[in-house]
């Protein structure tokens, strides 16, 4: 069981947001250097993430729900084996690669990413995650929106999630 609501915003200063996250008593999990490889699928996104902290294969679809996006997850395999990765690469055509530096924080069960792309652009992503069916969709969405407001992220800064269009 996995569900989440996500908000992503392009920001001018990741550092300022990190200061606000510290004020909220967030837990810093570390800096992950990630390479995301995307593969062609009929619906949603199929992604291989290879990082220094997070490694996974995930197939998901995000749908707009007001200012947040609801994620429907079809596959979520953490720490895939070399065999699983080879099988993925042989079964699907690669359509893009995104590299980024990701700082990962937690505020309760909400995962916060501050991403820096090679071109210097910075983004923040808020993911209100529920792996145990503790929250309704509306509660997750509201938790995401509440953290957006606490961090001072304006609606004009919001962007669609995902770097590969």
What this model shows, in words?
The protein is an alpha+beta fold and 165 residues long. It has one domain: Hypothetical Protein Pfu-838710-001 (Beta Barrel), CATH 2.40.320.10. The chain contains 3 helices and 9 strands. It has helices at 14-23, 82-91, 137-150; strands spanning 3-11, 27-39, 45-50, 55-65, 68-78, 94-107, 110-116, 122-130, 158-159. An 8-stranded antiparallel β-barrel has the order 1-5-4-3-2-6-7-8. It starts with a strand and ends in a 6-residue tail after the last strand.
CATH class: Mainly Beta
Cα-atom Rg, whole angstroms?
16 Å
Which ranges are low-confidence, i.e. pLDDT below 50, for 5 or more consecutive residues?
none
Question: What name is given to the CATH topology?
Answer: Hypothetical Protein Pfu-838710-001
The oligomeric status of these chains comes to: single chain
Number of domains: 1
Question: What features would you highlight for this structure?
Answer:
single chain; 165 residues; 8-stranded antiparallel barrel; 21% helix
Write the layout of secondary structure elements.
Layout: E1 3-11, H1 14-23, E2 27-39, E3 45-50, E4 55-65, E5 68-78, H2 82-91, E6 94-107, E7 110-116, E8 122-130, H3 137-150, E9 158-159
Antiparallel strand pairs: 1-5, 1-8, 1-9, 2-3, 2-6, 3-4, 4-5, 6-7, 7-8
